[in-house]
Backbone:
């Protein structure tokens, strides 16, 4: 018990990193994913193609590599970012690609009649999307969105590659230093509790969409 | 008057509409009949702006206010109610967004239509809680709320039994008596003979 109390501050400190990477990515990558999705669905072929390439690169290469490239590779082009910013950008760009595809699936699942009814009623494009289509899309894609967010929590541990101290790195350091599995076990429990809370929140939000079918 | 002049429409090689000429007066019920695949639905999709036509004209002659703007409504075969809105909001939402009605104004208008179409008590229901006939009447209310000069019905009786079929016929008559031009697609000859002022046979 004493040992747990001794290591907990280090682990909590690492957890802060986990939390901000998660928070920043979630907040920015979802709207960006929606924008990418709309551009991907654009009738202008060049834009759509560019987005397809972007999505392919982001989904087709490891996130670890993308983080590394943005931090170590971009300076070659004269763009120097600090570790936190490089991490945030890599995570946001990567997750936005996945979210974009989730949203695309959602939009494609909406009946064509919804768009046509809106058109005949002379609703503007933005009213059609924001008032009619997106609310229905969110209901459809929410479970997949939640899935990605849970994966994101665990992916945050990849920040170790830039030397940022997240909870898993703190636990591993302590574990090596003290030749004990306890820090790793605590770290695992903290992930579990956090994802448990996240799951409850997601379920709560999902239930808000249950008023219609 | 809504005038359709020399309207042509092809899908690839297949010409679906060939030199269609048709006038529809306000207050008149025109039923468009014909076999499956002759382009009945394509014709009203062209009228409603859901399909581009290759050549010809769709013209609103000068007795129509708005001149083309908001001047045509559609009650599609699948009704296409917005499932995340209740009955009331299905009717009021376009009024507020397109006609810039204030909320109370839109609600009052919607209440009138709910009464007119016998939807009382269903105002807070969602599409999944409504029967086919009720959905249809909500779709009619939503279209009428926009006060179009013309309104199209795509196969309004296809999913209905005999009794309800006559209800829809009466309803269409009432809509026309409000001064709207009504264009109805149907393959139901008997229905057309009974309720149409004019039947337009679309040939194969």
Residues:
């Amino acid at each position: 018990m004493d040992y747990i109390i001794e290591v907990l501050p280090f682990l909590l400190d690492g957890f802060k990193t986990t939390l901000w990477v998660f928070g920043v990515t979630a907040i920015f990558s979802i709207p960006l994913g929606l924008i990418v999705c709309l551009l991907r669905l654009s009738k202008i072929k060049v834009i759509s193609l560019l987005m397809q390439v972007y999505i392919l690169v982001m989904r087709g290469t490891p996130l670890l590599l993308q983080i590394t490239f943005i931090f170590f590779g971009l300076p070659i082009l004269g763009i120097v970012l600090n570790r936190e910013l490089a991490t945030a950008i890599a995570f946001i760009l990567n997750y936005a690609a996945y979210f974009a595809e989730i949203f695309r699936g959602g939009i494609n699942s909406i009946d064509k009649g919804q768009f046509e009814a809106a058109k005949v009623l002379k609703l503007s494009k933005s009213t059609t999307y924001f008032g009619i289509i997106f609310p229905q899309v969110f209901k459809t894609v929410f479970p997949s969105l939640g899935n990605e967010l849970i994966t994101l929590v665990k992916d945050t541990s990849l920040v170790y590659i830039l030397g940022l101290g997240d909870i898993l790195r703190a636990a591993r350091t302590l574990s090596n230093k003290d030749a004990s599995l306890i820090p790793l076990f605590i770290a695992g429990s903290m992930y579990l509790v956090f994802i448990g809370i996240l799951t409850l929140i997601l379920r709560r939000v999902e239930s808000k969409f249950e008023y219609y079918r | 008057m809504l005038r359709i002049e020399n309207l042509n429409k092809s899908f690839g090689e297949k010409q679906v509409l060939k030199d269609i000429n048709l006038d529809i007066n306000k207050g008149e019920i025109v039923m468009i009949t014909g076999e499956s695949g002759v382009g009945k639905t394509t014709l009203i999709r062209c009228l409603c702006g859901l399909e581009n036509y290759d050549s010809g004209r769709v013209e609103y002659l000068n007795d129509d206010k708005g001149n083309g703007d908001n001047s045509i409504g559609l009650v599609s075969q699948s009704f296409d109610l917005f499932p995340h809105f209740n009955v009331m909001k299905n009717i009021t939402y376009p009024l507020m967004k397109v006609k810039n009605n204030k909320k109370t104004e839109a609600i009052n208008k919607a209440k009138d239509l709910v009464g007119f179409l016998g939807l009382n008590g269903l105002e807070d229901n969602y599409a999944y809680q409504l029967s086919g006939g009720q959905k249809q009447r909500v779709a009619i209310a939503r279209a009428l709320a926009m006060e179009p000069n013309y309104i199209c019905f795509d196969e309004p009786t296809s999913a209905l039994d005999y009794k309800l079929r006559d209800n829809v016929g009466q309803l269409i008559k009432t809509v026309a008596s409000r001064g709207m031009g009504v264009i109805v697609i149907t393959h139901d000859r008997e229905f057309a003979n009974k309720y149409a002022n004019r039947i337009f046979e679309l040939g194969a």
